[in-house]
Write a structure and sequence with these properties.
Layout lengths: L7 E5 L6 H9 L7 H6 L6 E6 L5 E6 L7 H8 L4 E7 L6 H12 L5 E6 L6 H17 L8 E3 L5 H14 L13 E10 L3 E7 L5 E2 L3 E5 L3 E10 L2 E2 L2 E2 L4 E7 L11 E3 L7 E10 L9 E7 L2 E10 L8 E12 L6 E6 L2 E10 L10 H12 L3 H11 L5 H8 L3 H13 L3 E6 L2 E6 H21 L6 E2 H6 L5 H13 L3 E4 L2 E4 L8 H16 L12 H9 L3 E3 L5 E3 H18 L4 H8 L3 H13 L3 E4 L2 E4 L1
Parallel strand pairs: 1-3, 1-4, 4-5, 5-6
Antiparallel strand pairs: 2-3, 7-8, 7-15, 8-14, 9-13, 10-11, 10-15, 11-12, 11-14, 16-19, 16-21, 17-18, 17-20, 18-19, 20-21, 22-23, 24-26, 25-26, 27-28, 29-30
Helix pairs in contact: 9-10, 17-18
């Protein structure tokens, strides 16, 4: 079922405070699986197990290394947690790695947890009470897990472990897996080989389900792989759900280099990059310099790079808008937290806002900072409005791609703006476009004015050409066509043969032009099916007469009076019915027309799909 095991819990704290022993008691699994861990009696790599809570919910539990020499492994393990059990020995109380772990957990946005005072069987009650109060006081002063419950345990006291499970059950009930992008994501934290099966990777699945047989993309290598087998908690499954810790047996080329820190996702959903932009909050008493060399932690990846300051520090004096540049390709995902270290010290942490950072000109920095601020504060409506101010129109898909946001986030905010009448939808060829309502009104007014002015200047013309109108407005051909189609659908304009006119416009000739037009028609009638081609008359009057259906254009220089043209065409079709075919000679003989006029009328009939030419003969369609 989908709700099964959606939460990953980690144990954090100073070395030898009882984290591994607690996990073994909770899960029955010894998280220290390496020989060196057994020999030293301490955790080096994150260890993994699972347990059932009183509610029946199954959760994964990760044991994070406590020794300062393995802090990088702790950081990688912490990146995938939803909840933490902070283990502090009743004997020793808060130690340096306790605070460093708290700082790292806070950096990854893990604020939900339980403070466990371990080894209570090794101290008397007075000391236990004193130690508990000191722990609470110290953590409150540092602003770590201020609202978290404190529970004392002994691994020899089963009731204290049972009570801990009940507290965990109560605390995790409201934890949700946030979805930022429309793709399954598995940051890889373990890579190993199983005899007879091949390569296996493990990590926490986020966002979407995955299934056996499904194709995923290995990043940053950009290699397609297939899921051969899938396990959750040691059990083979066909489907894994967001929140599950999964082990995936991959169908992959043996020569492919695969490492901890790589990432699996749906194909073409995440673009590897060497830089990302984001919000950065520094640790207390830490000064950040532009182009400072740092170690970058994102998901389970660790890379060397530099931090660049975008603009000035924020008003709090501790946070900046930054660009993090890696020496190698990484897999930034919008909304994901990152952590920065310098040598052996945490410099601070932040949130990835634009996964594909670029070099910005100085005069563009205010724009990019405003964009980052909107992304950080999740002011998506303002983000969309600003984008639409800088572009005539766009689509939901373009906005999702531009800001690497899930489609639901963009759609919900678009609907909110539409309900407030700040944006409008435009439909063209079944595609939906978005435009600022105010901007659409401006375009509509301007196009109306252009056409209206044209009608006033040239009342005898049907209208202005699409291209002549577009040149007067700063729009691409595509965007202009989209807006024109919308105006046409609203019955504001007419479009015919690439000519635009207002809906109520009727072309009219002057008295003198009307006289010329009537004389032209009379001349055409006089010569019946062989009208002269050298009558001097303006193109405007010709187009007007065609538009009014007074004449028919047969070829570039041959025009027939409309009724005569219709009559001739009908008689030719009758001839075809009698003879079962139409030839140039049969038409010439019947109507006494020259080859020039005969060929012109027959080609016109072909163009109107009235006849079909095969060799020198034509047949009625």
């Amino acid at each position: 079922m989908q709700s099964d095991n959606q939460i990953v819990i980690g144990t954090a704290g100073h070395v030898d405070h009882g984290k591994s022993s607690l996990i073994k008691k909770l899960t029955g699994v010894d998280p220290d699986h390496l020989k060196e861990e057994k020999k030293r009696g301490l955790s080096i790599q994150p260890g993994f197990g699972w347990t059932f809570l009183p509610s029946g919910k199954r959760v994964s539990i990760v044991d994070l290394p406590g020794h300062e020499r393995f802090i990088k492994n702790m950081i990688i393990g912490a990146s995938g947690l939803d909840f933490v059990i902070l283990v502090i020995s009743a004997e020793e109380g808060i130690m340096p790695q306790t605070l460093e772990h708290c700082s790292i957990l806070k950096a990854f946005g893990i604020n939900e947890g339980i403070i466990v005072v371990s080894k209570k069987d090794l101290v008397d009650n007075d000391w236990l009470n004193f130690a508990t109060e000191e722990i609470k006081k110290h953590l409150t002063e540092k602003n770590f897990f201020v609202d978290s419950p404190i529970h004392s345990i002994s691994i020899k006291d089963d009731s204290s472990i049972d009570d801990l499970k009940k507290i965990i059950d109560e605390k995790i009930i409201n934890i949700k897996n946030n979805k930022n992008i429309n793709s399954s994501i598995i940051p890889i934290d373990r890579v190993f080989t199983v005899k007879g099966f091949g390569t296996v990777v493990a990590g926490k699945l986020s966002n979407q389900i995955i299934n056996i047989g499904e194709q995923l993309e290995l990043l940053p290598q950009k290699i397609l792989v297939r899921i051969k087998n899938l396990e959750v908690h040691g059990n083979k499954v066909k489907t894994a759900y967001p929140g599950n810790r999964v082990a995936i047996n991959l169908s992959i080329n043996d020569s492919t280099k695969l490492d901890k820190g790589n990432l699996l996702a749906n194909p073409d959903q995440i673009k590897p990059s060497k830089a990302f932009d984001g919000y950065f909050n520094s640790e207390d008493n830490t000064h950040i310099k532009h182009n400072h060399k740092v170690t970058i932690f994102t998901n389970t990846d660790e890379k060397e790079g530099v931090i660049r300051i975008l603009g000035k520090e924020n008003n709090d004096g501790k946070s900046w808008w930054v660009q993090i540049k890696s020496n190698e390709y990484i897999n930034p995902i919008v909304g994901t937290r990152f952590l920065i270290r310098d040598s052996n010290k945490n410099l601070g942490s932040g949130i990835i806002l634009i996964p594909e950072g670029k070099r910005y000109r100085k005069n563009y920095l205010p724009n990019i900072i405003e964009k980052l601020n909107n992304l950080y504060t999740k002011n998506y409506t303002n983000l969309i409005i600003n984008e639409l101010k800088n572009t005539p129109l766009t689509t939901i898909e373009n906005l999702c791609s531009l800001y690497y946001l899930d489609q639901d986030i963009i759609t919900n905010n678009i609907e909110k703006l539409k309900s407030e009448k700040k944006i409008s939808y435009i439909y063209n060829n079944e595609n939906q476009y978005i435009i600022l309502s105010e901007k659409f009104d401006i375009y509509m007014t301007k196009i109306n004015q252009i056409i209206e002015s044209y009608h006033e200047l040239f009342p005898y013309k049907i209208g202005i050409t699409i291209e002549d109108c577009r040149k007067k407005i700063d729009l691409s051909q595509k965007n202009f066509q989209i807006i024109l189609r919308e105006l046409q659908s609203k019955k504001i304009i007419n479009i015919k043969s690439a000519i635009i006119s207002l809906i109520n416009h009727e072309a009219t000739l002057s008295t003198e032009q009307e006289k010329v037009a009537n004389n032209f028609i009379e001349e055409l009638k006089k010569y019946k099916f062989s009208p002269p081609t050298d009558i001097k008359i303006s193109k405007e009057i010709i187009n007007y007469l065609i538009y009014k259906k007074s004449i028919t254009k047969i070829s570039n220089d041959i025009y027939y009076e409309k009724n005569l043209a219709d009559d001739l065409i009908e008689k030719i079709l009758d001839l075809g019915k009698i003879n079962n075919e139409i030839t140039i000679s049969s038409v010439r003989n019947k109507f006494g027309t020259s080859r020039k006029y005969t060929l012109a009328i027959l080609e016109y009939m072909d163009s109107q799909n009235l006849t079909k030419r095969i060799d020198d003969k034509r047949y009625i369609r």
